[in-house]
Specification:
The chain is α/β, with parallel strands linked by helices. About 45% of the residues lie in helices and about 15% in strands. The chain has a five-stranded parallel sheet. It has a four-stranded parallel sheet with strand order 2-1-3-4, sandwiched between helices. The chain starts with 11 loop residues before the first helix and ends in a 9-residue tail after the last helix. The C terminus is likely disordered.
Length: about 300
């Protein structure tokens, strides 16, 4: 049994197979619909954090594949508070064929997976966002026809999205640049991870230097969920890292702009860029659906619906 918690647990070949499967499933859907590969299977979706894309894309993916998804709110589950994490894992393992969890603390996912007898999928944690990265890689593959050798310039706060994106870049031979203000740059743990996975990484304070000649500019919110107390400070620190038309002028003419959404327009990205010709924000969002279909099929199609109790 496999989990999908971190890209560190999957090889390049395995991730490439997922991207190929995502492409096949997207093509099949656009040609008239997907086969019911997950008929009779149920995905439990456990949420500690709210979401638009994660909830809808997983729910719709299961529907397209002939299965069913159950949304479990923070109030219903109380993961680790109302009920212990191992107990939640054991109960859901008896009802469903996989668990997707969107949590604050990455350690909660690890504890959930340890006690679960069905696959666990990381829908987001404070450490990684691997499903988002799979959609990002799939989008770039569609845009460029390859991944090896591409240069991604990430502009903004170094966070869970940056970490997963870096792991994806390392797996596929991409060059990554990170431009962040002092105090928000990659930390020692991030740099050690980059070295362990042979990631070609450059760190900048000047965002214009980071995007020069880049194929991709990627940004994210300045204030992630759980950091609301830092809002005032961050809004004073990050304006120089806004992705706007002036920053795009320093990049290559074929550059594409990505954002994992939700976008705080007028802060980390302008309307002109988000809705402009270089933007792939909404293709990227749509591809969450197809990339996650591949993950679900890879994990759940091998779990007998009648034998998981």
């Amino acid at each position: 049994m496999r989990h999908f918690i971190s890209l560190t647990d999957w090889s390049r070949d395995e991730l490439y197979e997922l991207l190929t499967l995502a492409s096949d499933l997207k093509r099949e859907w656009c040609a008239g619909g997907n086969r019911p590969l997950l008929a009779g299977r149920v995905l439990a979706m456990v949420f500690q954090k709210p979401s638009l894309r994660t909830r809808v894309s997983f729910d719709v993916a299961m529907l397209h594949l002939g299965g069913h998804a159950l949304y479990l709110s923070p109030q219903e589950v109380g993961l680790g508070a109302r009920e212990s994490i191992p107990d939640v894992a054991r109960v859901l393992s008896g009802y469903t064929q996989a668990i997707m969890a969107r949590v604050f603390d990455h350690a909660d996912l690890l504890e959930l997976a340890k006690a679960s007898t069905v696959p666990v999928i990381n829908g987001l944690s404070d450490r990684e966002h691997p499903c988002q990265t799979m959609a990002d890689l799939f989008t770039l593959y569609e845009q460029f026809g390859h991944l090896n050798g591409l240069t991604i310039a990430y502009v903004g706060d170094t966070n869970n999205v940056t970490r997963s994106l870096a792991l994806g870049a390392a797996h596929f031979g991409m060059h990554m640049r990170v431009a962040s203000p002092r105090g928000y740059a990659p930390n020692a743990d991030f740099l050690a991870m980059a070295e362990a996975f042979d990631l070609a990484l450059d760190v900048f304070e000047d965002p214009r230097e980071a995007v020069r000649g880049a194929d991709v500019i990627y940004t994210d919110t300045w204030v992630s969920m759980g950091q609301e107390g830092e809002t005032e400070t961050r809004q004073q620190v990050f304006p120089a890292y806004q992705v706007n038309s002036a920053l795009l002028s320093a990049a290559s003419t074929h550059v594409v702009v990505m954002h994992c959404l939700p976008a705080h327009r007028g802060q980390e990205i302008t309307d002109e860029v988000a809705d402009g010709t270089h933007s792939v924000l909404f293709t990227q969002a749509e591809n969450r659906l197809h990339a996650q279909k591949a993950i679900l099929v890879r994990l759940m199609a091998q779990v007998p619906a009648e034998d998981n109790l």
